[in-house]
Every structure is written in C-alpha cells, then in structure tokens.
C-alpha cells in the first residue's frame, strides 16, 4: 500500500439503503470466463476455469438464475441476513441465513443467534450451543436489495467469549482511552492464491508442472501472464457494493496470486472489513469453481509466499515530529518480536526466510524503503518527518483482529523497561 489516506466515514458500520439500480452478483457476471464448446463442458485446463454449468435459454440453470435474481422488495419488508463467523481453525469462515422482519441500519437492531459448535470444532457435543453476537453489517452483493452480511463473534450461553473469538479482546484494546485518543489507522494488504479445483495447483500453471520463473507476472496483462483477473475484479466491485473500504488490487509476483488492499480503517473496523472481504472472496471463488488458499507459502521453492502486510499509524505519527514516534514504536516492536511472530499466522516460518522480499523470522530489522526488513518505513515518511510504518511480518492467513490490536497494544499501551529500551535502541541504531 503506497500511503495511508484519511479513513472513510463508513467506519461506524452503518448501512444505507441500496441503490435501486444496483444488482447482486449473478452468473451473468461470469460470461467472460464461461467455456462454451457446442454446449459441451470443456475439460479443465491450466489457463482457464469455468462456471459449474453451461447456460442456455431453456436450461434448468437459467430458470434457477431467474429465481436467484428475484427482487422481493415490492412484496415484503423482510430481508435476509447472512450471519458470518470464524470457525474452529481460526481461519475458516462459516455462515447461515435468517429472515429479519424489516431492513436494519445497525447491528444492534439484529437478534443474537446460535449454532452447533460441535460441528465447527468450537464446542463439545454434549454442550454444543454457541451464541452469535452481531457486530458489523454490510450490504449483500450476492442477494442485493436490502439484504445484508452480518459479521458476528461467538460466545458461550453464559456470555463468555469462546477461545477462537479474537474480536472480543481486540475490542477491549481499541476501547482503551489511550488507543482511542491516538485514532489508529490500518491499511492491510491481503495476498491470496487461486488454485485449480481437484488438482489444487495454482491457476495458470501446467498441471503437475511449473510456469516460467517469476518476473513477468507482477501487475501483468496477457493470457500467458495473468490468471484469475475476473475473480479479482468481481471481488473488487462486490466489496465496494458491500461497503467494505477496499482501496485497490493488483496481480502478485507468483502467477495465480493476487492482492487487494483494505483501508485506511480505524480500530476494530480493520478486522471487520478484512473478514467480510475474505467471506466475499470465498463465495466468488465458489461460484467460479476455483479454490482459494491463504497459505503463506502455497508452493515451496523459488516462489514468493503470500503475506498480509499491515500499514499502521497513530495520530502522533501523522503529526509533525511523528518520525520520532514511529522510531519509538519500532523499538517497542523489536522487544516483542517473538510475541508478534507467534500471533502472525500459521506456517509463517515457511515464508519468512530472508528471501523473496521477506526478513528472517528469527531476526527483527527495520529500514527505509527496504522490503527485506521486518518493518519498512517509506521514503515519504522519512522525508516529511511523519507518516506510517509497514509491518511486513504478518502471513496471509493471519487474524486481522489479533494483528491490529497487538500493534496498538505494543506501541500505545506496553512500556518496556529503561534498560531494555536502551539496549534495543543501541542495537537498532535508533535515537528516540
């Protein structure tokens, strides 16, 4: 992410009524990737993918699409709310739907719900009920109309957050007066990889083989270099429709890999928007018949991994003299390097090797414009004496609630001893 700009006013998570001209994602949107060969299904190739059924004027799928596109608004005030939560692995998204009597503008208007936690690895079978608390709402790009997506977190019937509920602790940190006063901004760069279904090999790669070396694929165009653009573009528009603060997208260094950026976001909003955007991406790849992976190193060898670089700034960092505040934050981050690494995503050791634009997982480092460091500071930040820092350590499968709140805690609430601070400053050549 090139720079952190002012955050949108949407961060309060309120929903406005959808435009009457807006339409949900349907299979019509996939016309550019639909394969037609005399109405016969073409075999899966390394460079193309298809929707699961061929569309024809009188086909069952065409009649089904008509029902999916029904606008029920003239006939009922009821809406469909898709309740979304994080499953037992800490990275899987689950969801189910319920009817709500009328359109809503705020999650407080929605009822709590429950699910079977024994089926998601979050509760024992003999006491399996887990309660969903609605926390943020977004417009539903799949159903359209006044229908919504609802980001929830999970609690026991007694009201205690379950272990996989990382949002609860993040909300506590972001509600601390010291954190609120510093208005923490985040810009998160979510990388992901698209895989061919069945073979689980990157999109655009010969099955069981390899493409040419990295170099031509980053931000590229062309059928021999760019694989999955329709998915990236569909996701981009769907996020804008939903009210997610998505700020850009691009093809990544490894073929079949993409990135999108969310932010600037304030506080807990960053995690809500990333999880909503991940859910939408899962649904789009489901429709396209492509597998999404957030594995930080999906292909071993001389290929880039997938990260989730997190750009971060506070009010003091953005004001005059902010570079000194940034350096103090870097000092604190260096002293808690192991704590951050342990919370920055499973399998991250396969990615943070010191190669492919990463720092070594065991060594903390920082630098100006250096993508091989743990923390990168931009040239403009150095020049202007204020700005933001980029934490390049988080893996693509990190939990954004954990990463964003840990950055705020380490830089705003945690205080090292004077001895540790002096030693770290000397080691990092920091003058604070």
TrEMBL record:
InterPro entries, per database record: Gln_synt_N (IPR008147), Gln_synt_N_sf (IPR036651), Gln_synth/guanido_kin_cat_dom (IPR014746), Gln_synth_cat_dom (IPR008146), Gln_synth_gly_rich_site (IPR027303), Gln_synth_N_conserv_site (IPR027302), Glutamine_Synthetase (IPR050292)
Domain GS catalytic: 163-432
Family annotation (Gene3D superfamilies): Glutamine synthetase, N-terminal domain (3.10.20.70), Glutamine synthetase/guanido kinase, catalytic domain (3.30.590.10)
Catalytic reaction(s) noted: L-glutamate + NH4(+) + ATP = L-glutamine + ADP + phosphate + H(+)
Enzyme class: ligase
Domain GS beta-grasp stretches: 79-159
Swiss-Prot/TrEMBL keywords: ATP-binding, Chloroplast, Ligase, Nitrogen fixation, Nucleotide-binding, Plastid, Transit peptide
GO molecular function, one term: glutamine synthetase activity
Domain of life: Eukaryota
GO cellular component, one term: chloroplast
Annotated transmembrane regions: none
Predominant localisation class: plastid
Subcellular location, record wording: Plastid, Chloroplast
EC number assigned by the record: 6.3.1.2
Oligomeric form and interacting partners: Homooctamer.
Family of this protein: Belongs to the glutamine synthetase family.
Protein name: Glutamine synthetase
């Amino acid at each position: 992410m090139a720079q952190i700009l002012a955050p949108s006013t949407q961060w309060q998570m309120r929903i406005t009524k959808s435009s009457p001209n807006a339409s949900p994602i349907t299979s019509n949107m996939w016309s550019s990737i639909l394969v037609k060969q005399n109405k016969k299904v073409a075999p899966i190739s390394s460079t193309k993918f298809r929707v699961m059924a061929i569309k024809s004027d009188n086909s069952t799928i065409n009649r089904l699409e008509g029902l999916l596109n029904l606008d029920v608004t003239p006939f009922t005030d009821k809406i469909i709310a898709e309740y979304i939560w994080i499953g037992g692995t800490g990275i899987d998204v689950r969801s189910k739907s319920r009817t709500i009597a009328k359109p809503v503008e705020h999650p407080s208007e929605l009822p709590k719900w429950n699910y079977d936690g024994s089926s998601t690895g979050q509760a024992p079978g003999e006491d399996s009920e887990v309660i969903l608390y609605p926390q943020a709402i977004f417009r539903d790009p799949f159903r359209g109309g006044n229908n919504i997506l609802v980001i929830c977190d999970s609690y026991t019937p007694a009201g205690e957050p379950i272990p996989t509920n990382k949002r609860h602790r993040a909300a506590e940190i972001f509600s601390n007066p010291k954190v609120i006063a510093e208005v923490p901004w985040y810009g998160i760069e979510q990388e992901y990889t698209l895989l061919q279904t069945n073979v689980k090999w990157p999109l655009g790669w010969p099955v069981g083989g390899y493409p040419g070396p990295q170099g031509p694929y980053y931000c590229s165009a062309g059928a021999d270099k760019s694989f999955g653009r329709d998915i990236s573009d569909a996701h981009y528009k769907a996020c804008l429709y939903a009210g997610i603060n998505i700020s850009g997208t691009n093809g990544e260094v490894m073929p079949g890999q993409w990135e999108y950026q969310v932010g600037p976001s304030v506080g807990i909003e960053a995690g809500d928007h990333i999880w909503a955007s991940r859910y939408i991406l899962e649904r789009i790849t489901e429709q396209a018949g492509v597998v999404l992976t957030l594995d930080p190193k999906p292909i071993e060898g001389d290929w880039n991994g997938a990260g989730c670089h997190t750009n971060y700034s506070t009010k003091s960092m953005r004001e005059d003299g902010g570079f000194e505040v940034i350096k103090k934050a870097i000092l604190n981050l260096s002293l808690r390097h192991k704590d951050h690494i342990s919370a920055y995503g499973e399998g991250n050791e396969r990615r943070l090797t010191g190669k492919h634009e990463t720092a070594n997982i065991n060594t903390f480092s920082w630098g100006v414009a250096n993508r091989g460091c743990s923390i990168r500071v931009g040239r403009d930040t150095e020049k202007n004496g204020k700005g933001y820092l980029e934490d390049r350590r988080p893996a693509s499968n990190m939990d954004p609630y954990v990463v964003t709140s840990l950055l705020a805690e380490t830089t705003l609430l945690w205080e090292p001893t004077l001895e540790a601070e002096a030693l770290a400053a000397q080691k990092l050549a920091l003058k604070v």
